[in-house]
Amino acid sequence: MVRIGIVGGGQLAKMMAQEARKLGFEVAVLDPQEKCPACGLADYKITASFMDGDKIRELAEISDVLTYDIEHVNVKVLKELEEEGYPVYPSPRILEVIQDKLVQMEVMRKARIPVPKFVRADREELKEKAREFGFPLVQKTRKGGYDGKGVMVIKTEEELDKLLPADSMLQEFVNIEKEIAVMVARDQYGNVEVYPVVEMVFNEANILDFLVVPARIPEDKAEEAQEIAMRVVKALDGVGIFGIEMFLDKDGRILLNEIAPRPHNSGHYTIEACMTSQFEQHVRAITGLPLGSSELLVPAVMFNLLGEGYGKPKVVGLKEALSYPGVYVHVYGKPVVRPLRKMGHVTVVNKDLEKALEIAHKVKGIIKVVGNGS
Amino acid sequence: MVRIGIVGGGQLAKMMAQEARKLGFEVAVLDPQEKCPACGLADYKITASFMDGDKIRELAEISDVLTYDIEHVNVKVLKELEEEGYPVYPSPRILEVIQDKLVQMEVMRKARIPVPKFVRADREELKEKAREFGFPLVQKTRKGGYDGKGVMVIKTEEELDKLLPADSMLQEFVNIEKEIAVMVARDQYGNVEVYPVVEMVFNEANILDFLVVPARIPEDKAEEAQEIAMRVVKALDGVGIFGIEMFLDKDGRILLNEIAPRPHNSGHYTIEACMTSQFEQHVRAITGLPLGSSELLVPAVMFNLLGEGYGKPKVVGLKEALSYPGVYVHVYGKPVVRPLRKMGHVTVVNKDLEKALEIAHKVKGIIKVVGNGS
């Protein structure tokens, strides 16, 4: 019996744990929350901060292999464990690269992955570097950014005072045609499975509205994006599942945006729409098993269920939502709602992608996760 | 938050619980085993016998709806609960009908479902009734039969001493061309979703070898079988998922064999191969949600992982098994192995059914669940 230790017990860990248990593995979870989404599926639970090195070592002791469902964990201890010969997947080396957006881009540029033009800009020289770089530009703080945080668009010299006071990189402002993402799984023997290209559709407030697969882009561009995504994961010597976010710009260039060394929101559709889900691939890869097929069986549209209000969660409209064909609802079981918190997701599958989109639009207006205010 | 109480914590309850949690429901399980397959997924666990009425009432008190994953439970208490207005699905009335094979067939014959010819034969009049009925015949004891137990084939008058000493029914010996099964889901509003016909392939020892879907039978026979299966569930006024086992005989007749008022072994393929799994359908039906589509997305072959030896289970050959495309392994997490105990199952999907069968044959020779002898 193999036991998988997961640092982090959120929805990604929950869905990993479900696949792990299906394959007969046990699961141990470390999470600061007493009642985390994955907790109810874990054979063992350690309640501790993701930064608590001693507790991460305790998790390693009761497990046979470690993985994680978030990037902001104690990398130092994971690296020590790896150096001691303990299996940690994906390698904490990769976490170290990814936790610093500048380093991430430098490593990728060195590996000849197409990336937006960028320069390093330390905190004390931000304005000077920005003027040199030219406008419009995008500032990204090197650390701590997540879901759009730590990012600032500076359109003209007049906006220089908006710069965030932190060590950063300055990136060219990409004229985005579409934001796309590709999931890539890679096993311990170097074999790779690449998923189809996903298209991210944003609303006016720049919040991810829908995820559409296959992406409505030319076939040669889709192949190019898959090729780049695989090269990214190979360049990192990654083992596990990776989410590779990219831009397709108005000139037809595909440029790397960001790497997630874990199951990713843009891969949730794989549960219903693909032969093997991103979570099963991850479990297979980190336990030394061969990968499954990433083949898409049916087009899909996914949207997140973002929290509304505060308090204990209540799912509204579930019954009506499920009355549409091909609608799959995932509620993560988070104990409390906060506005815009990811409380679940919905996948709509249909042989006709336009039909799936139509149903997804309708269902999105129906199903909500709201707080009871207490 | 709705909490589903399940009497029984075996593999069927485990897979139900996974779907229930996905939809945001909580789960409470009653099972005599301390470490049952569903236990690790349950929010609440009651350790007690399936016959313990007080404990079943306790389960009802902490739950919002009751269901079960086996038939041999305390029906009396479930009926009392239902009479008090507590929701129990499928209705314990149905359990009562099904627990007695004679009553099951009588009810079905009355509903004009095609059944093999049969007569009642009480324990003290077995031989006499058998002679009257004629040979060959099949004796089925009215109660307690399971997985082929309680069944005796009497080919000639000379074999009369083989009759099992129990109240029974005597059934015509059907010249079986194929054994088939159909899963049917029915919601609280009378809507029905019917799954494709599954073909059961037995080995020389008459143990189920493979389950093949879609069944290799003429299309009009498949439609007839689906029609009969739906009529069975309607006749019972069933709510939930039902497995309807039937015979296709050498004269082309389709005859009812047995009814399972719960998720069924012959519906496991739905997890990977259908739009909505039998487990999700069951959870939807019993919680008052609408059903999902039962559409088959890809042909499938399923086989059970039967235990070998005794002791703690060890999965052998997992890595090699998963190296074949479209192979999905489910290990139930039962704490100990016994010979022929269902320890898990494997589903092989492939757009080409013959290819799926070929892979299933190979993989069946590779993957085993063996006891460590301790």
UniProtKB/TrEMBL annotation, chains A, B:
Domain (ATP-grasp) ranges: 105-287
EC number per UniProt: 6.3.4.18
GO cellular component terms, semicolon-separated: cytosol
Recorded GO MF terms: 5-(carboxyamino)imidazole ribonucleotide synthase activity; ATP binding; metal ion binding; phosphoribosylaminoimidazole carboxylase activity
Ranges in coiled-coil conformation: none
Superkingdom to which the source organism belongs: Archaea
Keywords for this protein: ATP-binding, Decarboxylase, Ligase, Lyase, Magnesium, Nucleotide-binding, Purine biosynthesis
Keyword Ribosomal protein in annotation: no
Top-rank EC class of the record's enzyme: ligase
Ligand binding (ATP): 101, 140, 171-174, 179, 257-258
Catalytic activity: 5-amino-1-(5-phospho-beta-D-ribosyl)imidazole + hydrogencarbonate + ATP = 5-carboxyamino-1-(5-phospho-D-ribosyl)imidazole + ADP + phosphate + 2 H(+)
UniProt record, GO biological process: 'de novo' IMP biosynthetic process
Recorded metabolic or biological pathway in which this protein acts: Purine metabolism; IMP biosynthesis via de novo pathway; 5-amino-1-(5-phospho-D-ribosyl)imidazole-4-carboxylate from 5-amino-1-(5-phospho-D-ribosyl)imidazole (N5-CAIR route): step 1/2
PANTHER family linked: PHOSPHORIBOSYLAMINOIMIDAZOLE CARBOXYLASE (PTHR11609:SF5), PURINE BIOSYNTHESIS PROTEIN 6/7, PUR6/7 (PTHR11609)
Family stated for the protein in its record: Belongs to the PurK/PurT family.
Subunit structure: Homodimer.
Function according to Swiss-Prot or TrEMBL: Catalyzes the ATP-dependent conversion of 5-aminoimidazole ribonucleotide (AIR) and HCO(3)(-) to N5-carboxyaminoimidazole ribonucleotide (N5-CAIR).
Protein name as it appears in the record: N5-carboxyaminoimidazole ribonucleotide synthase
